[in-house]
């Protein structure tokens, strides 16, 4: 697993131009900063040099306001790269009075999309950062903002779960049906590994709010075909998951899920690649 993790990491090699966009927990776009990330493989790809430059203005030709570099010869256990190069990394453990966060990264052709979810020391969702990146020199385009209409229908897919303890990856089939009940509510039914989960959400602008149960969560429909699915507040001693999705085209959506158990410990990450069948 560790060796494959490095090889999958190498699928992100290149120069990526894009932006970091701050988004409020309510889905409001706050501000954006231009960025260039370089991932360069050296020594027969046994060493990867990472460089991040961020710019204060509207041009990549300006002097960067931040220029940060790091070298990697191995990867920490908190990060998992899947075969596509898509990855998930973040906190090992939810704890009282401690910051908590996770990053989700997708790669598809000459595009990357990353998203960082941060929780404050009261375990409340405090900020979302959406990072839209394009391989330098390519003609890659940004996707339109995600809409509810694009999600409606039936999606069938395959899921791959990689575990913190490096046991073999699990693979299983998934089915997700999303339908409108009325103008103000949707219902979704998720089936996997013989389990079916049904839930409903109210439609509030670019938010789908799930209030059933004792831990409300919301899906935010965001720029570039992306979405977040996260609790507004993390509860101690209860299992939870964080999810980011990306509609890579009208018929394919990918979702990354980071799973935590009732002790607040990270147990694994799941990549779902699903196709719309109707």
TrEMBL record:
<feature type="domain" description="Biogenesis factor required for ATP synthase 1-like C-terminal">
    <location>
        <begin position="142"/>
        <end position="277"/>
    </location>
</feature>
<feature type="domain" description="DUF3598">
    <location>
        <begin position="3"/>
        <end position="137"/>
    </location>
</feature>
<dbReference type="GO" id="GO:0005886">
    <property type="term" value="C:plasma membrane"/>
</dbReference>
<dbReference type="InterPro" id="IPR012674">
    <property type="entry name" value="Calycin"/>
</dbReference>
<protein>
    <submittedName>
        <fullName>Uncharacterized protein</fullName>
    </submittedName>
</protein>
<dbReference type="InterPro" id="IPR022017">
    <property type="entry name" value="BFA1-like_DUF3598"/>
</dbReference>
<dbReference type="InterPro" id="IPR048378">
    <property type="entry name" value="BFA1-like_C"/>
</dbReference>
<dbReference type="Pfam" id="PF21053">
    <property type="entry name" value="BFA1_C"/>
</dbReference>
<dbReference type="GO" id="GO:0000918">
    <property type="term" value="P:division septum site selection"/>
</dbReference>
<dbReference type="Pfam" id="PF12204">
    <property type="entry name" value="DUF3598_N"/>
</dbReference>
């Amino acid at each position: 697993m560790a060796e494959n993790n490095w090889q999958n990491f190498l699928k992100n090699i290149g120069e990526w131009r894009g932006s970091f966009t701050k988004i409020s927990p309510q889905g409001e776009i706050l501000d954006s900063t231009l960025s260039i990330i370089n991932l360069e493989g050296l020594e027969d790809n046994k060493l990867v040099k990472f460089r991040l430059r961020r710019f204060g203005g509207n041009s990549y030709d300006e002097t960067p306001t931040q220029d940060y570099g790091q070298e990697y010869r191995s990867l920490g256990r908190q990060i998992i790269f899947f075969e596509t190069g898509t990855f998930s990394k973040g906190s090992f453990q939810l704890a009282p009075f401690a910051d908590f966060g996770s990053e989700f990264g997708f790669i598809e052709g000459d595009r990357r999309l990353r998203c960082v979810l941060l929780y404050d020391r009261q375990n409340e969702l405090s900020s979302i950062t959406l990072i839209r990146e394009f391989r330098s020199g390519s003609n890659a385009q940004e996707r339109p903002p995600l809409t509810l209409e694009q999600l409606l229908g039936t999606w069938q897919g395959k899921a791959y779960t990689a575990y913190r303890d490096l046991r073999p990856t699990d693979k299983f089939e998934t089915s997700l049906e999303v339908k409108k009940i009325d103008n103000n509510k949707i219902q979704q039914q998720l089936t996997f590994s013989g389990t079916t989960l049904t839930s409903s959400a109210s439609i509030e602008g670019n938010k789908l709010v799930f209030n059933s149960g004792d831990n409300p969560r919301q899906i935010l429909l965001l720029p570039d075909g992306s979405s977040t699915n996260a609790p507004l507040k993390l509860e101690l001693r209860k299992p939870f998951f964080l999810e980011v999705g990306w509609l890579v085209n009208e018929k394919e959506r990918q979702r990354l899920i980071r799973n935590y158990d009732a002790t607040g410990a990270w147990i694994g990450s799941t990549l779902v690649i699903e196709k719309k069948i109707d």
